[in-house]
Automatic annotation (TrEMBL):
Catalytic reaction list: (sulfur carrier)-H + L-cysteine = (sulfur carrier)-SH + L-alanine
Similarity field: Belongs to the class-V pyridoxal-phosphate-dependent aminotransferase family. Csd subfamily.
Domain Aminotransferase class V per the UniProt entry, residue ranges: 26-408
Keyword Transferase part of the UniProt annotation: yes
Family matches, as Pfam families: Aminotran_5
GO molecular function terms listed in the Swiss-Prot or TrEMBL record: cysteine desulfurase activity; pyridoxal phosphate binding
Superkingdom of origin organism: Bacteria
Protein name: Cysteine desulfurase
UniProt-listed GO biological process terms: cysteine metabolic process
Keywords annotated in UniProt: Pyridoxal phosphate, Transferase
Function: Catalyzes the removal of elemental sulfur and selenium atoms from L-cysteine, L-cystine, L-selenocysteine, and L-selenocystine to produce L-alanine.
Organism listed in the record: Microbacterium dextranolyticum
Gene of this entry: sufS
Amino acid sequence: CDPLDAAAIAKDFPILAEQVNGHPLVYLDSAATSQRPRAALDAERDFLEHANAAVHRGAHTLAAEATELFEDARAAVAGFVGAAPEQLVWTSGATMGLNLVAYSIGNASVGRGAPASAGLALRPGDEIVTTAIEHHANLIPWQELAARTGAVLRHIPAHDDGTLDLDAAAELIGERTRIVAFTHVSNVLGIVNPIAELIALAQRVGALTVMDACQSAPHLSLDLPALGVDLAVFSGHKMLGPYGVGGLYGRAEVLEAMPPFLTGGSMITTVTLDHAEYLPPPQRFEAGTQPIGPAIGLAAAVRYLDGIGLDRIHAHESMLAERMRAGLVEIPGIRLLGDAAGAPRVGLWAFDVEGVHAHDAGQFLDARGVAVRVGHHCAAPLHTRYGVTASVRASAALYNTTGDIDTFLDAVSGIRPYFGL
Ligand code: PMP
């Protein structure tokens, strides 16, 4: 496909013109939060300036306009991942989406939503399988669900090169497995996981699949229904959209069977003082006033991504990842986490700088205008696995140029010498 012109794309992102510490900003922290193009910023602002109103049931013109924009946004964001509008539940982000799923299953496990939800109920001794490389958002909700239901949490291990051990996965996913939860792309390793294989292993035993698509949705073309995954989550702010909005995709039968998590206004059909009947999905999971402006901003963001094309974006980011790797491996004392030869990846590398704490390395880079993330990136067990408490993570997006990568590499090469190493 046609290579994209990242320098021209960067001009659509006002913040990328900022100077930081006297240097042009080189933003390599998109895995934490992406920057927003003018189109997404304007869409939310236009809504607030011209059509702002609470959606649904309003008797006035603005409410009708807002409802139309909000439901159009749902269709756009659902379409972005290959789904139908009714398969897309608005959330506040991936963390909320994963908690929604875990709490809904927890509710099914205590008999809520029965009989439709009975198939989702967990019993003591049932197994939830996740991986050893998850973000805490796709780990702790399952720990909590296991603790509440007596289910057992098991973890697919990773090889030293960061790829998942599929042989171990095939052994772990068995008759007792009810849920298999995994990330599409690790936010530390950048490797695209073999999700088709994981989904097939789960389907073989009839387990529910839950995918964290936070780090793939902005970088890879997704067709969630074609993948066959049951549930998947993503965050708007990582895909050029606003904070406070995200999506939970679900297969129709699965969403239909799930009891609600949050309850209250906007998710009911009839209510008495003692009882309530719930709307079908997606509204069943959308209690309370939704993030209407952010949803409209996110729709503009995914239209922007689609306008450029995910295949071109992926090709560009793969090229940046390769350029980063080629430079980093030449710098003495840099150890990449998850340097799997030939593994498909997004434009992200985490690394350890021998003898220098990640926070010091991050500050050194910041002084040169290079924004990276340091710490355990909400994946503490994965860092423990690599024998470090923290790493430096550089993550690129469609607006990063090869020049950005070269500035970054040049700065990284100065870290150890600066600390006398
Ligand atoms: N999963 C992954 C892989 C992530 O990278 C993140 C964000 N760092 C999350 C989940 C949580 O996303 P949010 O904080 O937007 O809910």
